[in-house]
Amino acid sequence: MRVFLLLFFVLVSKTLAVPPIDVQEEAVFDTDQVVLDEPAAEEEVVVVEEQTVGANPVQVETDDFEEPEETVEEVVAENPCLNHYCKHGKVCEVDENNMPMCVCQDPSTCPTATGEFEHVCGNDNKTYDSSCHFFATKCTLEGTKKGHKLHLDYIGPCKYIPPCMDNELSEFPFRMRDWLKNVLVTMFERDEENNLLTEKQKLRVKKIFENEKRLSAGDHSIDLLTLDFVKNYNMYIFPVHWQFGQLDQHPVDGYLSHTELAPLRAPLIPMEHCTTRFFTECDTDSDRYIALEEWAACFGIKEQDIDKNLVI
Fold first, then answer.
1. Are the beta carbons of 109 and 90 closer than 8 angstroms?
2. For the purposes of burial, counting CB atoms within 10 Å of the CB of 176, is it exposed (0-12), middle (13-18) or buried (19 or more)?
3. Which range among 65-69, 84-88, 94-98, 281-285 shows the weakest confidence by mean pLDDT?
4. Do residues 204 and 238 make contact, with C-beta atoms less than 8 angstroms apart?
């Protein structure tokens, strides 16, 4: 028993004699062990890509916060003559107060005529290179007796026109009415693609065109023309009004001047040599202008049938 106790104490004393292991050293040992067991990880390199402007909705150009440059637009003053009307033979100029005014055009500034068809004849029996030359010349004569009497007689160079006899003058309105009616009918027949007539005009002419009683074009006797006018009077009302509207253009004022009648003095017009004398006698008030009422009466249209709404 004593031997056992002695052996126990010897073992205990040896155990107490072994120095304790430091905690820090143990931690180091464990760490080194981990390093040896696992290879060191490579250091991760983070690359920051440069974003283009607009890729990030929050990102804005620095220029957006810069003050905008003030743009100064050059203001071009409107030409006062732009919408200022001057009659034939005059041009617009600006006075010292920048106000538009009409002055006579110098005939030498008119464009050169390119053909004989541009020539016009004045009632002074003189051929002018163009209507521009004629009106510019007439303007320079304003205030004079010669200028007051000078008018454009007809289109084309001056030529010999025989005098209009009394019997021819009496036939003129009959032949002219018939000619106007046939002109409109011909235009209606060819108007599918040419737009020669307005829609309102087409409706009027269509009634004439489709009327079986219409007298066809031809060199008819004055007796037949007189009879047709009596029987088919309504067919002639619109053609007479239509021709007035075609001539009343410079300006559109409800009156025909001597100059506006010039297109009727052409070889295509029947009895052209009676045109001047006929319309001179139509001017019943001698004011040198022909009103619609005077025009219609010259062609035998009754007063109750004269309608400005037909001048379309």
1. no
2. buried
3. 65-69
4. yes
Residue ranges of the chain that CATH labels 1.10.238.10: 166-310
Q: Looking at residue 69, what is its pLDDT?
A: 55
- Span 166-310: which CATH code? 1.10.238.10
CATH fold of 90-155 reads Wheat Germ Agglutinin (Isolectin 2); domain 1 (3.30.60)
User: What's the pLDDT score for residue 73?
Assistant: 57
Looking at the chain, which residues constitute the CATH 3.30.60.30 domain(s)? 90-155
CB atoms within 10 A of CB 11: 9
Other CB atoms within 10 Å distance of the CB of residue 243: 22
